[in-house]
Write a structure and sequence with these properties.
By secondary structure, chain A is mostly beta strands. Chain A is built from no helices and eleven strands. The termini of chain B are far apart. Classes of the chains: A mainly beta, B mainly beta.
Chain lengths: 122, 111
């Protein structure tokens, strides 16, 4: 069974930093690109970042570029999101999601974690 | 960035009745491999989103056949042939071809 379990969320002051983790199990982690997607309270879904299998290709939404860094540790089957210079508008549930497309074209989020809540507030 | 527009914003349906959601993209989602890179997701109350339809018309594993996706180019539709109580939630389409991936604003389906 595919499982994605996020952790590391919490309350942080504006300008602060936080590191999210996602522990993956039930599939061959090195085969799939991985993603972070967020959802502000009561709002829709926003793709945040993607990292390819060997971390060769990394992409960010413009809203987080320069502040967030995605990484993965294939030996630990884990995905990370280091967040700096956090703003109130970064407040959201952050989901880890697997890209079910094995290849270079498109993305398909076929498995999602339950999410971890990040609250940026003074 | 590609703009993705969903309609309606909300939908109230009686059990057993059909439902239809529209999704329009500002750019074609047809790739040279012949597939349309448009996905549909359902977020049930209190849950994470789940994949319903991929490549415009393919049901994800375990998705009942009352769900169907269609469309081409920039216009796509999700149809539920006979809505059941378990289908309530927010439906999102997403353009899956271009980076950044953009989700539609969502359609809330209520019974």
């Amino acid at each position: 069974e595919v499982r994605l379990v996020e952790s590391g969320g919490g309350l942080v002051k504006p300008g602060g930093s936080l590191r999210l983790s996602c522990a993956a199990s039930g599939f061959t982690f090195t085969t799939y690109s991985m993603n972070w997607i967020r959802q502000a309270p009561g709002k829709g879904l926003e793709w945040v970042s993607s990292v390819s299998t060997s971390s060769d290709y990394i992409y960010y939404a413009d809203s987080v570029k320069g502040r967030f860094t995605v990484s993965r540790d294939n030996a630990k089957n884990s995905l990370y999101l280091q967040m700096h210079s956090l703003r109130a508008e970064d407040t959201a549930v952050y989901y880890c999601a697997r890209d079910g497309i094995v290849g270079n074209i498109g993305r398909r989020f076929d498995y999602w974690g339950r999410g971890t809540l990040v609250t940026v507030s003074s | 960035d590609v703009v993705v527009t969903q309609s309606p914003l909300s939908l109230s349906v009686r059990p057993g009745e059909p439902a239809s959601i529209s999704c329009k993209s500002s750019q074609s989602l047809l790739f040279s491999d012949g597939y349309h890179y448009l996905d549909w997701y359902l977020q049930k109350p209190g849950q994470s989103p789940q994949l319903l339809i991929y490549l415009a018309s393919n049901r994800a594993s375990g998705v009942p056949d009352r769900f169907s996706g269609s469309g081409s180019g920039t216009d796509f539709t999700l149809k539920i042939s006979r809505v059941e109580a378990e289908d309530v939630g927010v439906y999102y389409c997403m353009q899956a071809l271009h980076t950044p991936n953009i989700f539609g604003g969502g359609t809330k389906v209520e019974i």
